[in-house]
């Protein structure tokens, strides 16, 4: 049963809702209505228009792009109910949150937990204002699923580290200002020899090579470090703590990749509404094909149920101090549902759902094809489904290996 709010609490929430509505009316450009946020996706910040910039700055000034982050670091300082109101009112107005990317999804929450006060003061405010873009230096050619096998080495040189090695699948590396990376500082211990540090992407010795994907996009890169100097103050936590910090960050990543975060925003219009534009309908407006109708209904029910479950799980985790291993369950189910939706879209649109280029295809049709191909990677990056199954078995279900 829902908890009844006291009159004063209801009045406060109503007043705050009015404040958010007035803010949107005064600051949100009409030309951006019902459009997504390119800066939080795979495109580079160079595509930001004057209207996008104005909206980002307005939201960043309020801290509402990171509504529950501490106000002292540039966040909104809102409680859960107020943050939900911001989300609801943005959605009603066709507005989007212009503050995104890996700094918000992964690095910021991790730094708030493990970073020094100086590091928080330096790095969190620019993230809250959407002024800086971060990328992730984790996977290597021989350290993907077995991430702890990474070999990029940071040699202690007194007042700095000298980093040499290679990272791959660096999302948005060609656009990033900074990189949060896990590197080896001790070769004698696989896990305890890993440290977490921050690297400026414009430092001499950093080279980025984009990788072209089957979808036609190049969101992933190879990144090479050759005698890259990293100041000692860029070490997060202590030497050897990188594996602990790195795993925590992955929990934030998986939660956002699942459906509790970016996946939900990517889904867009309901499949039933899209199907009515492409498929025959009955006199009452229902889809004439009963098999397709059942497929869509089955998916929409499971997707809605998953979103509600994901939101509850995320809220419960935050109430207990942050994300948890449940992020692996969310990531596994959410990304699988995302791939299923992409396949259903093709079935609904038929040949119009397989266009690659040409005036006979709409922008949304072309975007869906690329999204379908790009989506094949979602069950691999951020921790493959097989890795998530292992985590779920061991950490969630308590199933231990017995020799």
TrEMBL record:
Residues 240-397 form the Acyl-CoA dehydrogenase/oxidase C-terminal domain. It comes from the Bacteria. Residues 135-228 form the Acyl-CoA oxidase/dehydrogenase middle domain. Keywords: FAD, Flavoprotein, Oxidoreductase. InterPro entries: Acyl-CoA_Oxase/DH_mid-dom, Acyl-CoA_Oxase/DH_mid-dom_sf, AcylCo_DH-like_C, AcylCo_DH/oxidase_C, AcylCoA_DH/ox_N, AcylCoA_DH/ox_N_sf, AcylCoA_DH/oxidase_NM_dom_sf, Mycobact_Acyl-CoA_DH. Residues 12-131 form the Acyl-CoA dehydrogenase/oxidase N-terminal domain. The keyword ATP-binding does not apply. The keyword DNA repair does not apply. Belongs to the acyl-CoA dehydrogenase family. This is Acyl-CoA dehydrogenase family protein. It comes from Qipengyuania pacifica. The lineage of its organism: Bacteria, Pseudomonadati, Pseudomonadota, Alphaproteobacteria, Sphingomonadales.
